């Protein structure tokens, strides 16, 4: 009889956990995955990436049809109206198909789904819905949840988190978003396009923290032009709700006179924090760092041998593709192979219109590093306004920026604002993964007419001149 029930039990079936479980099973390990939700796929498929992209897509089409922006192409609509229930239904259908797809993949790969919440009872065992299970290896992939804002209680009616904002039963008149980060701008865009007035209250002096400075500035300009009311350097100090209306008290982040803002909907989107509550980590001999995350080594193993962790519960960007890649690599380590994730080349995409995508160092980070090492950087930029396809499609907002080491010409970072920046960034990732120089990109033949040619021209601008500028 086997010593343990499983070779590997993965806790959590989000992009980190479900991918790890499938990879481990493919590598011949007897694998189970614990998930307490009624469907697989975690935050990403159920209440994150997928439903948000469904609403972003649908609201974009609605806005195009309704705003008259297609008239210039000779396409006239009359009587465009919103059926929000149908929009939600189509979103739910996409979510259902994708979460059902994971269930199918589990069956196909012989991964057991253990339903319920897992709590450690030792470094090799856990309790799930009153039953005990043992495993030679355990992987924690419990993800993250919304960071609460003291004084602004989420009721999922008037004051909502991202999950509530993905399911509003009607378009708010005035939506106040607390936090000018990725969730605030994506979900703010959805409701702005569907007719809400949207105010973004951001604590810092610019939106989109962590992104390239020039990108942050340009993005703010574009969002303001679209109708977002963006209030940076402002903090919310409290909220009261009465009769379906929230009254928020706000004041300058640096302190000063307070004022009130009324809204029929408030979205709290000030970040997310690792999920470790109820896991009884201490029973396994584990603890969390100062930010509540589980620390791991290069092999994704925690301080306890045989216990691994991946995804949002660990340090690093909270992104589905980062979680997935870590899940694959960690499963490979469990199976005795060497898994690899290059954490220097993880793209980030904000799915607003236009999209904002970035990989590698920002110009500020690259300059700072160069100053320390005595090196220099070069920057090439190309505006989408000068890209023939963007001009033809009438989607000319944005630019491409390539940052390279001045001496070696190696690409250090790429930042794009463009209608399809999220797709364009993949080329930059591949180039950086292969250690490309800006010249490598500049001398690569790009199909014409495509938005991707803007990346080629920005790369040309690093050491010389682009053609179309
Ligand atoms: P999760 O997806 O959070 O999955 C963890 C799972 O573990 C959950 O299902 C949870 O129920 C389960 N669990 C937790 N504790 C236990 C327990 N004790 N027992 C059993 N099960 C447990 N990222 C992108 O890359 N692109 C996007 O477009 C994008 N959009 C997003 C939009 C929104 C609105 C949000 C909120 C997030 C978005 N993200 C996006 C982030 C992305 O969803 C996360 O980075 C990703 O889901 C992390 O994967 P994970 O596997 O680490 O955790
Ligand atoms: P975020 O970290 O992107 O943005 C939070 C914002 O809130 C920051 O700008 C921060 O300065 C601000 N803030 C913090 N406290 C505040 C306060 N008290 N008052 C006003 N502003 C305050 O976090 P967000 O948007 O909640 O997203 C969480 C995570 O989900 C992100 O880390 C992101 O990686 C992930 N995500 C990714 C998406 C994508 O890849 N397209 C889409 C949505 C979420």
UniProtKB/TrEMBL annotation:
Cystines in this chain: 44-49
GO cellular component annotations of the record: cytoplasm
Catalytic activity: N(6)-[(R)-dihydrolipoyl]-L-lysyl-[protein] + NAD(+) = N(6)-[(R)-lipoyl]-L-lysyl-[protein] + NADH + H(+)
Stretches assigned to the FAD/NAD(P)-binding domain: 6-327
GO BP annotation list: 2-oxoglutarate metabolic process
Active site: 448 (proton acceptor)
Protein family membership: Belongs to the class-I pyridine nucleotide-disulfide oxidoreductase family.
Protein name as catalogued: Dihydrolipoyl dehydrogenase
Species in which this protein is naturally found: Sphingorhabdus wooponensis
